[in-house]
Each structure stands twice: as structure tokens, then as C-alpha cells.
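hey can u check if this looks right to u? its 255 residues, i copy pasted from the old doc so theres a chance i mangled smth
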Amino acid sequence: MAATGVAAAVDAAGDGSETVIGRPASVLRPVRAGNGFEEALEQLLQLLRLGLVPPGERLPSERELSQHLRISRVTLREVLKVLQDQSMVESRRGRYGGTFVLPRTAAPDGSDELRRRIAAVDLEDTLRFREVLEAGAAGLCAEGLPADGGARLRAALDATQGARLEDYRRQDTLLHLTLTELSGSRTLAAQYAAVRATLNELLDCIPLLVRNLEHSQQQHAAVVEAVLDRDADAAREMMREHCGGTAALLRGFLA
């Protein structure tokens, strides 16, 4: 059976690059190690939203996708499970099985509100500003954490780790607000509170993904440990990585 969709159009160019639908591999490309799940999901969502694989056609095999994205098959299957849960693809077994793209369904109830939220903000500007504020706050905390700062940070981190799924977003927000408040800059904390409100409007438009929450928790813990170790560079870098994962999800679902 002839390959279809992207599977037929992904070919080695002989110079180390690959093409997708006759274009440079800017849609499916190797992901960075820090946010493999989120960035792979972003790319596959973009692939589907661009219509590069028509409804009814098959995605490349797990082997091809995992090699192209440079992620494990375990991570890839978690990404594909999210796409299945969102009714964007379906898995079929048998000789001619694989992962097939489903037709786009009619907009669900509440889609007018979703469109209003997205249209009301500049997504890229919000994500960029959020990263600048949070990375700066993490560095400032590491450089001058107040006496009670360590206890407050650990308590906020513990609250996210023990949060029920329906309460996770609130506890996550409180952890990030605590970090910015401990930066020592009231202006930074106020600006972050405003951008976080906008960010939560957008986050409420996408599903809570257990795999992503587990990954976020690891990054939260790494940020807190870097702050407590007074390692400003590590705190800033880990926070940038964390913000990058969230940005990848939002771009994938909303862009």
C-alpha cells in the first residue's frame, strides 16, 4: 500500500535535511530535550491545523515520527493519546492500521467565548512578557531570598504537588505569584499578576494534560531548588525552559 500524507512527502534530501510536503522541515523538526512532550505536541497540532495531512489519511509511523522528532516512542504515544482524546486522530489496528486524521468537527458550545478570549490578546507578546518577568523574578529570588522565602516557596511547591486536578491551576498560579512576590520588586510582582490573569484565560481554553502537569512539577521543583541553592543562572534558565513548555502547548492549541 502506497504511503500517504506526510509519510509520502517526508524524504531524506541527502544533505542531512528533510522535507515535509515539499517544504523545509519547519513543521516537524527535532525537539529540544527540556520540553520534548510539549514541543512534539505543538508540532503535531500545527501539522494537523495546517491541513498537511488531509482527513482520512495516515500519519507517518511511530518509528518515523519518533526518529524525526528525536523523542522516545513512549513520549510520542503520550502525544498521540492527547490528539486522540481531542478527537483529532484515531488509531486503527490491522495490516493497514496506524494513526489516521479525523475530520474537523463542528465548533462545540462555548466556542464564541473561546474565540473572544483568543482575539482579545496578543498571544506571542503575552508569552514573551511572561517569560521575561518570570525568569527575572527567579534570578532575583536566588540572589536575595528573604529570611522566610525558602519556607514560603517550599509550602507553595508542596501545595501544587498535592493538588487535585480541578484545583491544580489555582495552586500553580499561587506558586508563580509567590516566586514573583519574593523577588523583592513590587512592580514586577504587580506586572506578573496582570499577565498571569491573561495567561490563565488562555490556559482555561486548553485541556489539563496529566503528562504535562507531571513535567511542570519537575520543572517547578528544579526552579525552587535552584533558588534555594542561590544559583541565579540555573533558576533563570530552568524558568525559561518551564515557560517554553507552556508556550508550546498554547501555540499548539490556540495559534
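The chain is about 60% helix and 5% strand.
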